[in-house]
Write a structure and sequence with these properties.
The protein is α/β, with parallel strands linked by helices and 317 residues long. It has a domain at 197-317. 48% of the residues lie in helices and 14% in strands. It has helices spanning 21-30, 46-56, 75-83, 122-129, 162-171, 196-215, 219-242, 253-261, 265-276, 279-316, and strands at residues 10-14, 35-39, 61-62, 70-71, 90-98, 116-119, 139-142, 176-187. The relative contact order is 0.11.
Amino acid sequence: MEKGDERVEVLISDNDSTDNTSEVINNYIHNSYAINYVRNREDIGADRNFLQCFNSATGKYVLILGDDDILLDGAVGKILDILEKDNYGVVNLRSYGFVNDFISERPKGCGYLKGYDEYNDLDSFLIKVNYFLTFVSVNVINKSLVNDNLNLERFLETNLVHLGWTFSALFNSNKNIYVKEYLVAAKLYNSGGYRLCHVFGVNNNKIFDIFVSEYQINKKFFEIINKKMLLSFFPANIIRSRMNIISVKDEKPYNILFPLYKRYLYFWVFTFPAIVLPKRMAFFLFSIVDVLRKLLQFFLSLVDYMRAKLFMAKVIK
């Protein structure tokens, strides 16, 4: 991004940080960077901070980036190039996780994929991005498509306030984008202090129910997300919690998830074993499933790449 690019508004909401954030930002401002800097007098919590960012943003599109997630070099320009082509609801950016060094830990496989896929039907888009819609740092939202009568404050205290504007923009659009190349590096295992299953099980489904009952959104779309949560998100994170890889508040996963998902086969086949099996056995079994999943993902990405090369060859001829 060029220093004076007027297409981009940079807004930083400092949630009463105790480090030198203020000093760093003021140094950029002093060097003529156009930054709108807001410092909260007290920690207002992640949800309220996200909502403050969204409400304060003046652009047509909004990307809220967590403070330890990283936009890769050239990402802003590539995002702008996409946004200027059409009127999209949600642009989902491909990301990878890192623990210490986002450069050395960048995945070597599938990095050759470039460009993006445009989706004109919600089923296919949700199958592709599913629970990554809950990851605020990878979703560019068309603010102009968010329902005017949507009270976003009702989603506060869920740890998922951003799903309010994400789903609103998504369901009000017939064009959404998945960017195939890595544009975001996401810090792993850095968030904690919340109830994993309560947030992504109970709260998630309460938000789903709001859009089904009040905005007449077909429930099948949320079924796609729930199945993917049960297939990989819950098993992986429950096991990580049991292995003390991530730090979350103590809770009883079975008691929380059973009432929500007892009718789902995926709950019994994938999530339930992660809860009840000895943790090392659960970790081993999930590792095997995860390797198979990644191999399938690599194969599908390779097929996608070969199709793109074949198409380009035909165009050149």
